Request: fold
Amino acid sequence: MPTNRRLAGLLKLLILIAVIVAGNLLTRGIIDGLDMSISPSNEPMLHRIIMTSMVAYILLMAIPFVPGVEIGLALMMILGPKIVPLVYGCTLVSLCLAFLVGRLLPEKSISRFLREVRLVRAAGFLESFHGLDADERLARLLEKSPRRLVPWFLRHRYLTLMLAINLPGNVVLGGGGGLAMMAGISRLFSIPRYVLMVAFAISPIPLFLILFGDRFATWPV
Reply:
């Protein structure tokens, strides 16, 4: 029985790795496919490509360790300020989707998976929070956390998450989708506050491009 459980855990882990690898390859393929000239003759095809890319962008960015945000950045760089509101909306939807997936994942299933892949201590740590509400979870984390900076980060978790989402190279932490999913799994973030925080966190680059994107488009190359 334990052997079968370990094999099941290994299979789940391999599937997860395959999804992450496929997501990275698909992201790169979509970005390469956006490298095309824009003219009235190919406008209908370009419109279809943009819509397909937006759907893929929402799904890929929600997957942990997949740099799906590069699709949105590529679209904004290629098409300029007019595409920015659409990319911003899709980014918000993607990060909210990842958060809700994490929020809806049964904690017992996560613990079982961790035990199947021999991460027993991590499973035990997660199980110690089962049945606790957000305030109780925070108190337990503060109790278990080492002193110094960790308690500050926990108490200011919305600010911490906002900074992490905007951190260059955050794909090593799971990327925007991974961070959002972990926030949902933690049950430490209320849904309304999370949505407001993410809406603000992802706004600097879109706002900058809306205000100043046309100026950069006129610069000589």
About this structure: Confidence is low (pLDDT under 50) at residues 217-221. Residues 2-217 form one domain.
